[in-house]
Amino acid sequence: MTLAPETIVAVLDFFGVFTSAVAATVLAKRQQLDIFGAVMIAFVASIGGGTTRDLLLNRHPLFWLKDLNYAWTITLTSLFTQVFYHQFERLDKPFRWFDALALATFTVIGIEVGQMRGASAPVAVLMGVITAVMGGILRDIVCRQVPLLLRKEIYLTAAMVGGVFYFVLLHAGVSLWVRDLLTLLLVLVIRGFAIVYNWNLPDIAIRRKP
Amino acid sequence: MTLAPETIVAVLDFFGVFTSAVAATVLAKRQQLDIFGAVMIAFVASIGGGTTRDLLLNRHPLFWLKDLNYAWTITLTSLFTQVFYHQFERLDKPFRWFDALALATFTVIGIEVGQMRGASAPVAVLMGVITAVMGGILRDIVCRQVPLLLRKEIYLTAAMVGGVFYFVLLHAGVSLWVRDLLTLLLVLVIRGFAIVYNWNLPDIAIRRKP
Amino acid sequence: MTLAPETIVAVLDFFGVFTSAVAATVLAKRQQLDIFGAVMIAFVASIGGGTTRDLLLNRHPLFWLKDLNYAWTITLTSLFTQVFYHQFERLDKPFRWFDALALATFTVIGIEVGQMRGASAPVAVLMGVITAVMGGILRDIVCRQVPLLLRKEIYLTAAMVGGVFYFVLLHAGVSLWVRDLLTLLLVLVIRGFAIVYNWNLPDIAIRRKP
């Protein structure tokens, strides 16, 4: 079975948009934003990374202007999450896991878009990282949260390692959808371990002599 | 009498730029920014929304790079507001009303620009909202204010309702400048009521059973 | 000796990228970001101003996507600064001076890019200011610092005065690399005096009568 890259990206994209719209709405409700404020935060989080990537790559028209399904998916997901907010909250802190799913998905999408634009491997990895983290960074800035990035967790690093892994698989001749899936799983596993075990990167600074 | 859409947009635009430059300068002075810091905040607030919209729509050259009147209007308005800052302050908290006027004006401009670019109704409404709120959001982020958006006031919602109303008028066959004016007034009235009566949107979450 | 504008811009650019990557990494370490978080802040600070400028001018492909030397310079500079962080810290608060060097360099680059795109003098000065200050502003926003801009120091003003000075030199017939160098020095001197003597701009508001 062969799937067109466009199909895989489209499926992953809607999944990532859905999970990050849920995560963003939960955050917005915690910050007591009103209905449409929360919808807007869901927009920022869900399409902020891809939009940043496409503006940097000069890729127009933007995906969510071309395809209104994004806008409807985000709006309905956010409204639904708001209605059942107290029910969702009961689940054991799902926010971080939805966020982790969006991180993994958007990493793969960013790399694929970079590939489709003929970018070199480092630029494609960078696009994966930007797509993965910019939505969350913008969301946190607008919501005045301490950005996830500043909390010393393996977040951006997970996306970056995933990106490098993708190109290792590519050079090993692994087929498209397998490497997409494996990359997604690797990012999710790294980020998941970081969440569960509070993983941090070591400090690389050479200490002063006492 | 028929006015070209471009003329109406141009007149509204300078009005919106003027009011938001005043509002931004008042905020910047409260935050004790220096002369040119305040001018820059006035730039960010006055052209931030339109610039975001045009970058998203890939509409180049940007209006304020093509037409230097924007830069001069903002600079002179901001300097003038700074010189007479203590005199302005005496007026009964005009900041929010200038901000409301800019909100209403930029909503209409954003929709018109969307229309001119052949955008569908939902995208045009979205462009109205983005043009209306992004300048204020960017201003608040740079000034480290709690964004208006987070203060649970009817702000973004006013722009959105105005946008939907615009397309109702369009389908009812109302002529251009009448629907521009009515949309502007509706946004202003909604936002005005929200300011005066502290209107908030209701929480749509289903409560947990006790 | 005549140097092509492109050569001068390229040399200045790498110098500015280097100094602002060092400054950003020092800030990121103070904020206790992890390794790749600090690298990312170095990216934001070093190419944020130029990227904003190029997006506004619709200048594609972006310089750092076309030329991977930027990415490698920033990454290696940031890692190097992190490894020797405690050694650097011993030096007498170099952070502000590295930042001042980047400010001066990026002002000149922004003006030159504006000139190359055929921008009018005011737009070219604006591009100089944007290139000079946006990287630092974005860096401070992501790091949740009080933006330098808000600290009432001669920062943006130094870039602006430098920009005006550049066009004075241009009209006086001063050759390219001399006016680049003199503009760079003027910005550095103004900013340097502001750092050393705590220069501030006067308040231009007319006082109320008591």
TrEMBL record, chains A, B, C:
<feature type="transmembrane region" description="Helical">
    <location>
        <begin position="154"/>
        <end position="175"/>
    </location>
</feature>
<keyword id="KW-0812">Transmembrane</keyword>
<comment type="similarity">
    <text>Belongs to the UPF0126 family.</text>
</comment>
<feature type="transmembrane region" description="Helical">
    <location>
        <begin position="68"/>
        <end position="85"/>
    </location>
</feature>
<feature type="transmembrane region" description="Helical">
    <location>
        <begin position="97"/>
        <end position="115"/>
    </location>
</feature>
<feature type="domain" description="Glycine transporter">
    <location>
        <begin position="97"/>
        <end position="169"/>
    </location>
</feature>
<dbReference type="Pfam" id="PF03458">
    <property type="entry name" value="Gly_transporter"/>
</dbReference>
<feature type="transmembrane region" description="Helical">
    <location>
        <begin position="6"/>
        <end position="28"/>
    </location>
</feature>
<keyword id="KW-0472">Membrane</keyword>
<feature type="transmembrane region" description="Helical">
    <location>
        <begin position="181"/>
        <end position="199"/>
    </location>
</feature>
<feature type="transmembrane region" description="Helical">
    <location>
        <begin position="121"/>
        <end position="142"/>
    </location>
</feature>
<protein>
    <recommendedName>
        <fullName>Glycine transporter domain-containing protein</fullName>
    </recommendedName>
</protein>
<dbReference type="InterPro" id="IPR005115">
    <property type="entry name" value="Gly_transporter"/>
</dbReference>
<feature type="transmembrane region" description="Helical">
    <location>
        <begin position="35"/>
        <end position="56"/>
    </location>
</feature>
<dbReference type="GO" id="GO:0005886">
    <property type="term" value="C:plasma membrane"/>
</dbReference>
<feature type="domain" description="Glycine transporter">
    <location>
        <begin position="11"/>
        <end position="85"/>
    </location>
</feature>
<keyword id="KW-1003">Cell membrane</keyword>
<keyword id="KW-1133">Transmembrane helix</keyword>
